[in-house]
Design goal:
18% strand; 4-stranded parallel beta sheet; 27% helix; 7-stranded mixed beta sheet
Length: 460
Amino acid sequence: MDLQGAEQVSSCCQDSCTSSNPQCACSSSETASPSGNNRTCSSGQAAELGESKQSTGKERPRRFVGRKGNADSSGRSVVRKGGRRAAQQIPDDILNNEALNEAIKVLPSNYNLEVHKIVWRIRETEAKTVALQFPEGLLLFACPLVDILERFCNVLCVVLGDVTYGACCVDDINAKSFGAELLVHFGHSCLVPMTYCCIPVLYIFVDIAIDVDHLVNSIEANFDSSESISVVSTVQFIQSVHALKQKLPGFNLSIPQARPLSKGEILGCTAPTLDGCSKILYVGDGRFHMEAVMIANPSIPTFQYDPYSKRLTKEDYLHDEMKAVRWGQVEVAQKAKCFGVILGTLGRQGNPAIVQNLVTALQDKGKEVHVFLMSEVFPARLGLLDADVDAWVQVACPRLSIDWGRAFKKPLLTPYETYVALEAAEWAATYPMDYYSNSAKPWSNYTSKRGVTLSVEAEA
């Protein structure tokens, strides 16, 4: 049921951070976790609309996949001062440095790594030790970037080599422990408020240029202009999504928003609930982020445009099976007497405030609770403790439970599912994808981080 198995069935950039996160102090242009495909999109015919293959294998997959079967040429950037945005200019001696510009040519031209901005920030902060953090898809650029920054900034650069799944994994704590005075985090938007980081963090979103004209032609060839289409993406393609809407004024395109994320941006754990649209178009490769908007909108047909393969496919998700699996684990957990609550320690992935609220809620129901700190959660590791723990709750990534929960011998619940098990929240008809949204729910990251006093009460 992989995307690569889709069959063809018919023929056919901004310069400022636009995040609505009030704590965002980033001065970068928007982009998200790249997949590591260092490829330049070429022109071609419109993508042909395809259908995802349905799995015919009898073996149950261990992971529930839910499938059926930067700054511009002027160098201008924006930062927040006192709650307002103020334009700043990268100095000309950096922008027009011939040696620096020549060195930057070793990097791919369609990936905006914003080297001038990084050089400027290092000089501005007078940092002597700088930590660089990359998702796996960008690690291949680590050594060239280290060479450039050490040459032109006279600093020591260290690369944080641990796995980085998303912006929730920003690792300012380890960076500081090494003595870094600045952390440059590549490939994700600013999820963790800057006030929660122990050293200054510069987010470089790494905008990836794609062939927007080919995307336009693909939409014109496969969709009716009267249809209401919501377009979403990961942040590396957000600029292209906004350009798409400008190029198709005759189409009824909308770019939804799940605050505090930027317009059009979705995460694997956070996506908007859409009203009044007939189709969803996801621009990006892979299924992880796309599945979030599918889970949040089970009744709306979803299509994917892969900017690398230039294929447009119709995608499906096994909503009923996913919910049946998750509800089954909730029912088992309702009978549990001892809970293990896991705080994810991979960067800033886990939220201590959510853990504290869960521990209180469980203890109020007379449950025995043990708290564990884990950078990653594996079945074999939890299996060593299964004799003493009846059910697990992980405060790391909700998709760990949704996608992999049935690989664990004991229930592995999300915070939302835990509140359902405690009869403190209703089992929703549509599974919520609001982990990083301003949802005012006790399982929401921003709700807890803002210090809101939470009460565990059944929802109406």
